[in-house]
Structures are given as structure tokens and as C-alpha cells.
Amino acid sequence: MPGPTPGFPLCPLLKLPDKPEFVDAGGILVYDIYMDEKHFTVLDLIDVDLEEHNSLNLKCIGGRKGLVRELKIPDINRPGLALSGFFDSFAHDRIQVFGRGETAYIRKLGEDNASETIQQMFNYPIPCCIFTHDLYPGDTFLEIAENAECPLLQTDLSTTEFSARIMRILSEIFAPRQSIHGVLVEVYGLGVLILGESGVGKSETALELIMHGHRLVADDVVEIHCVNGNIVMGTGANKIIAHHMEIRGMGIINVTHLFGVAAIRDRKQIQLVVKLTEWDSRGNYDRIGIEEQYMELMGVNIPKLEIPVKPGRNIPIIIETAAMNERLKKMGYNAAKEFNQNILNWIESDTARAVYFGSEDII
Questions:
Q1: 177-187 and 215-227: which strand pairing?
Q2: For 36-61, how does the pLDDT look when each residue is reduced to its tens digit (9 = 90+)?
Q3: Domain holding 216: CATH number?
Q4: Confidence band, pLDDT 50/70/90 cuts, at residue 7
Q5: Which residue, of 142, 282, 346, 353, is most buried by count of CB atoms within 10 Å of its CB?
Q6: Contact (CB, 8 A) for 173 and 40
């Protein structure tokens, strides 16, 4: 692995390119780093750390040798037709979920010594079988699964609830991911991604926002991924360094220890992008804000602002105001458009016409 670039901490989980380059993404210069391809196994699904409302409550009841099987499709399948002997278009590469109906049918096949269809089903490379409601498939099914080295899992959740939870989790795990150079903070409940060239003051701006009571998600390396095709989530690329900040002249600080757990959060939806640029007196900066700009991240257009930086400008205050203004826009109020409409109404009024025309000219 090559050495770390200036302003970029060395992270053992990231594979830095031999020649780091900035790439243009929708007018924003982004340090583009992709994570290594991730392999997710059945054992990873059991061990994944989930909150209570997402917990799958999984335990293995058979086929432990197959726990290393890889999950490749973020979807599930109810194998009712396969159990009846119909294998056309059998989605064998998905997680097979067995509810009360499938389990009752399996037990009936075992009692009738008609396990041919079960044996035929396990001829396919099934990643795993999961039984809901704490149901047990029976000894015949368990023996066939053991011989096929297919893992059998059990959960106490209902089939409907388990299906909803695992689809959310699989969508999160298999979502496209990309790591970029920037700082992600939560400002007034809005996820703000701060971008800009190295040394422009991203971390210092985020530090002052934290001191104003806002929360840090990630500094320097932000991992983004798209969920459900229209939501871009951001998190730290490495949990070990996610809530640390590098301040030039000071070094590394631990935000959690300095400001407490109220100053951090693990992940946040990116709802506003702010690009910090060096002030250029010849630059053409937006001074009204009628035309909204967007940046495309993972195929999703996110509102973008470009803020020039120079001595005397209070960038954190500007970002706080931008976050509140963006929230107003989401509620249906746009100050720039209202101002423009008021100007147009004034121009069309009799008062404005009297200014530009004499009374004798007005018909």
C-alpha cells in the first residue's frame, strides 16, 4: 500500500490508488476511492450487529458446514412451488424463507416418506434456508440439508416481519458504495457534506459547527452508498477513525472524548452538498439563488452550494443558514423565488409605473 496523501489519514481498510487523483463529479472535485469488493456470507448475516428494530434473531439449527456460503442476491424466495416439484424458474440463488405453510408441507412429506422433491431442491446451490416463528423442519429435512451442507437458520420473528427486516438489511449491505474526500456533519437535522480541495478549511469549519452543537458523522473519508435508488447515506469509512479529526497545526483529536457522544452520529442521509473554494475576485458567484444547483452522487441529485472562502467570512454561520434555508425549501418556502416574485409584482404595480412614466403618459 502506498503512503498516505497529505490531509488523508492512513486507513488499513482502504486501498489507496497508486496515483491519487481528483475527479470531476457534477462540477465538484471529489477524491474518488472505491472500497475493495466485499464478500458477505451466511455467517456474516448471523453475526451482523443490528439495532432492536432491525434485529433478525437468527440462530443456526443445522448445516453448519455451509455457513461460509456466500450471499450474492439481495432478495428472498418462498419455495412453495419447489417443494411441490415445480422447479422452472426456481430462484435457488436467493435466501429461502419457510413460513408456517411451507413447514407444514415439509412435515407432511416426511410423514408420507415422500422426500424426493426435498432432495431435488437441495441439488441446487441454495445459500441458506430460514424458518420463521421458531419452526422446526423435521428430522428428514434436517438430514437432507446436512448432507447437502446447506445451513438451516431459525428466527422467532413472524414471516412478514422477518421478510421486511431482511430486505432492508440486504438492500443496505448490497448497496453501491464509494468513498470520497470530505467532511459529513449533521446541521439542524440536515446531513451536510462539505467538500473542497485539501487545506481549504473543511475540518476547521466542521469543528466550529460541532462547537455550535451540531454533530460529526465522518471527517476526511466519507463512505457513501445509495439505498432504495434515491437516498444517499454517508458514514465513516472506518469505525475506528470515523469520529476523529485532523486539525492542521494541532494533529488528531477525538471528537467523542472532547465533546461527548451527543456530538457524533454513525450515519446520516446526505441532503446538502457544500463546496468550499478559495475566494476569486473575478469569480462569478450566485448572489440571488433562484437557480438551484445539484450534484450527482450515486445517481441521485443533491442540492449543492458553492461558498467562496476568504478571511473575514464566517463559513460555519453561512452553512448553518444554508441548512435552515434548505429545510424551508423542503417545506415549500423558497425565499429567493418569493423575492423575485415580489419584484415582478412591484414592477407591474401602478406605483412602479408612475416612477418610470409621467402621469400624462399613463393611459
A1: antiparallel
A2: 456 899 999 998 877 767 889 999 99
A3: 3.40.50.300
A4: very low
A5: 142
A6: yes
Burial 19-46 (b: 16+ CB within 10 A, else e): eeeeeebeebbbbbbeeeeeeebbbebe
Q: Taking the CA of residue 154 as centre, how many other CA atoms within 13 Å lie in the half-sphere pointing to its CB?
A: 16
Residue 27 is assigned to a structural domain of this protein: no
- pLDDT tens profile 258-275: 999 999 999 999 999 999
- Position 363 pLDDT exceeds 90: no
Distance of alpha carbon 280 from alpha carbon 308, whole angstroms: 8
Can you give the pLDDT at residue 318?
A: 93
Which residues are designated catalytic? 181, 202, 220, 287
Q: What angle separates helix 202-211 from helix 315-330, to the nearest 10 degrees?
A: 70
CA 165 to the chain's CA centroid: 16
| Distance (Å) of CA 177 to CA 6, 195, 220, 231, 296 | 24, 18, 16, 12, 14
Whether 15 is covered by a domain: the verdict is no
Give the residue numbers spanning the domain of 189. Answer: 177-332
Question: pLDDT-based confidence at 26, cuts 50/70/90?
Answer: very low
Mean pLDDT calculated for residue range 186-212: 92
Higher pLDDT, 347 or 121: 121
Please give the pLDDT value at position 135.
Answer: 94
Query: For the whole model, what pTM was predicted?
Result: 0.71
Strand partners, 301: 296
Strand ranges of the sheet holding 95-98, from the earlier edge strand across to the other edge: 59-62, 152-154, 129-131, 95-98, 76-77
The total number of structural domains in the chain stands at 2
Do 236 and 302 lie in one domain? The reply is: yes
Among residues 172, 201, 228, the one where a domain terminates is 172
**151 and 184 both lie in a single domain:** no
Dihedral of alpha carbons 186, 192, 194, 195, sign: positive
Contact between 99 and 128 under an 8 Å Cβ cutoff? The reply is no
Task: Answer yes or no: is 66 within a domain.
Answer: yes
